[in-house]
Amino acid sequence: MKKILVVAFVFLIAVSLVACSGTPAATEQPVAKEDLPPLEFTISMRDFNNPFVVGLPDINKEPNKVKLEELTNTKFDIRLIPNAQWVERMNVMFASGDIPDIVNAGSYLFGPELAGAIENDVFLPLNDLLKKHGPNLLKVVPKAAWDAVTYNGKIYAIPDYLNNPNRRAMNVRMDLVKKAGLGTPRTLDEYVQVLRAFKSMGVEQPFVMRANFKYSDTFFGAFDALPYQWEYYNGKVVPKFMAGNKGKEAVAFHRKLYEEGLIHKEFVTLTATDSTNAILAGKGGMWSMNGSDFIGREKEVKGNVPGAEVAIIPSPTGPDGKGGHFIYDPSIMAFYFNARTKVDVGRLIEFIDWQVTQEGKNFFTYGGDPAQYKAPANKKEEDEEGYRVGWLWMVKERDFNNPLAILREPSGPGLVKAFENILSKEGRDSIKFMLPLKALSANPDINPGVDTPPPIWMDGVARIIVGAAPIDYYDTIIQEWLKRGGQAAIDEATALYNSKSGQIYIPSGK
Fold it and tell me: All domains of the chain, ordered by start, with CATH?
């Protein structure tokens, strides 16, 4: 799961692609059939606050969209769903029964926006249809991404995919590291040494943390104790925060950081905006964020802090010699097909299959012929290219929304190398459940988010870190979590693990 196929960037320059999959190879086949009328269909799509999309008076008249219709012999109506109303509007759509022919949603089959659609047979299984109408998709999309949208042996969607699902990166003000006469830190002790140097220089937040441990759980990763992940331990599937003593040790480490002033005294109340503003103003020494956002953040820091040098470095390694942030699912979004559609589903699949052919890649990447490509000359053209490559292109590799734009930047090649040489070699995987555990769903206080701890754990641990409770209070937190439904969740998770039912994802080697 951790491999990054750097050749995915090469095709953007040399117009070639190499990809791997657990499915047999297939040859490219043209989709548009001149002897057929254009295929008319509807598709719902989330706007993702894309500035180009939001600013359009009518998405269905946008020239790139119209050109896509010409190239694929289609005529489709995009139903935009505002990002802020995503789950609510999707739920209303399913409740009303007014469901478009293709539905764009998250790749998690049981996500809140799908409102039980899988269980209620709202979407078509695609296994046989893909074999006949999606040969290029079967060749290009990795097996892990197909597995993410498969339930009980049925493929329910066509997913996009990540070649490198480890996306979060450790960022550091390397100019300050050099000023301190230190090298790139690797171990926990070396990281603490750098943080102490930052503090001595007057850096306000040597390590930037924020509320809910969001994007600030780097050191929990070093201990392999990310508090929203699960593992098999002593014959049971348990949260990592209670597998042995590593959770308690990670909390003790954070308490030390707090006592030495290496994290902000009010970190439990700091918002995402607070932490971002601190970083941009030069008040942060190191922080975690998605690697794909590096260039934009680096530019802003440099613009505000003359001489600043930001770099991606390996995450701290812990007692087991490993480290890193949590590994994302192998797919971010997917496209589902209405089981009651009157449209030819084979041709609908062919519409998406075309998008991963060379002709499709040329259109979305370059706007057409690569030889005629011209880089954007202004903000409007940049936004249009970003829309075509990152939004209108429905199924693609999504390590970066627009690799062409990244490679135009001075730091672009370095970022690609960071993904290849750093992020691909670190990260913590977890046991995951296809269906939410019932015991957790019934008890919000003990239920973790995708990348946030359970509230009961979070509140108790924050008390320990700020010194309002002793380290041994951690044992009380665990007991309270178990008492409120955690034991039932462990029993449920362990039963799924032992059943080998296909309703549980088990990392390799676990």
Answer: 7-164+330-399 (3.40.190.10), 168-313 (3.40.190.10), 432-505 (no CATH)
Cα 298 from Cα 264, distance rounded (Å):
22
Strand-pairing partners, residue 461, are none
Tokens 């922080």 -> residue: 287
174, burial (CB in 10 Å: exposed 0-12, middle 13-18, buried 19+): middle
Instruction: Give the predicted TM-score (pTM) of the model.
Output: 0.82
114: left (phi over 0), alpha (psi -120 to 50) or beta: alpha
- pLDDT tens profile 368-427: 999 999 999 999 999 999 999 999 999 999 988 888 888 899 999 999 999 999 999 999
Q: What is the largest CA-CA distance in the chain?
A: 76
Helix (H, G, I), strand (E, B) or coil at 222: helix
**Residues 276, 215 contacting (CB under 8 angstroms):** no
- Please, which pLDDT band fits residue 134 given cuts at 50, 70 and 90? very high
What's the CA gap between 447 and 442, in Å, rounded? 9
C-alpha 120/C-alpha 101 separation (Å) is 16
